[in-house]
Amino acid sequence: MRKYTTSLIILIFLLSFTFHFSLMGNELELIKGQVKIRSKGLDLVHRQKGKRIPVFNGDQVQTGPNSEVKIYLEEQGDTIELQSFSFFKVAVGEDNVDKMVLPVGKARFTVKKRVGLTNRFKVRTGNAIVGVKGTEWVMSSGEGDTSVLTVSGIVSLANILAPEISVDIQENQASRIEQNKLPTTPVEVPPQVREQVAKSSSRKAFSAITYGAPIVPTKEQLQELQRKKEEKEKTEDSTEKKEGQTDETPVESEFLVDTGEEEEYIDVFIDEPPEIPDELEEVTSEVEIETIKIKIDH
Do residues 147 and 248 share a domain? Predict the structure, then answer.
């Protein structure tokens, strides 16, 4: 009798744990409009407002016209609000870092503070990396431009080709990375403009901000970039010797740093963000390598 009682207790515990685990996870709520989710190669379009839809690591989310969705990341209690014509990829907990992707669109992030950890939440766009410790901010990306407005806390912004050269954007400040340049010096944004940018559903609202000039890298930062370039070349040479050159080798691109003296080239790779059509169509999961040349203006 005792044996059966013990087995029953274990079974109840396992069922309770399974039920609890099934409730834990990330969810998406459609506020208005329509949204398409690509999960494990399957595309589904949702139009039912207020419905909570599970989303998983690697899922791609695409919002339609006049649409808005809210993503809830259950583990940390973070939220992401996506506006119309946004393309977003969910990536939670990879290498102990939450790495999201927003190649196109406008979003508002509310991220809980990570105690004792640095930049555990990152967002990648077509030309920038945004890192935070716990804060709230609004950002837009697309057409080679990434703009960030910090609502509270501190947000770091760096060109994806030079992540070591970043700016810290304080509360009520904004910065941008335009095409192939370094981030601009953060500037204070007037309350009226902040409200306009935060409430608008369009990423074009960021055009109301008057940005500063791009920052100028220090000699030490350029030396660090050169050192990492040389390390990368050694790693690639070693890999080629072991595996040989293949047809899938990405095209090498160049990062041109204009110092006013000599030209220094930093070789990098960059993924091309997918183009978002005006209508909800097939979302491409593949990304291609493009060759670009980056010049930093003084």
Answer: no
Contacts of 126 (CB under 8 A, 6+ apart): 103, 104, 141, 142, 144, 146, 160, 270, 271, 272, 273
Window from 143-157, 163-177, 196-210, 261-275 with minimum mean pLDDT: 261-275
What pTM was estimated for this model as a whole? 0.71
Domain boundary (158, 181, 208) is at 208
Domain that holds residue 278: 219-295
What are the CA-CA distances from residue 231 to residues 165, 227, 285, 290, 292 (Å)? Answer: 18, 6, 30, 22, 21
Residue 97 burial (10 A CB sphere; 0-12, 13-18, 19+): middle
- CA triple 169-170-176, angle to 5 deg: 25
Nearest of 88, 217, 87, 210 to residue 161 by alpha carbon: 217
Residue 247: DSSP 8-state: T
- Give the CA angle between residues 135, 194, 133 to the nearest 5°: 10
The owner of tokens 């196109």 is 104
Q: Which residue has the higher pLDDT, 220 or 133?
A: 220
Q: pLDDT averaged over the chain?
A: 76
Q: Are strands 26-32 and 68-73 parallel, antiparallel or unpaired?
A: antiparallel
Residue pair 101/85 in contact (Cβ under 8 Å)? The answer is no
Q: Is the pLDDT of residue 217 over 80?
A: yes
Q: Which of 187, 122, 140, 129 is nearest to 162 (CA)?
A: 129
Tally of residues, the chain: 298
- For residue 33, give the CATH number of its domain: 2.60.120.1440
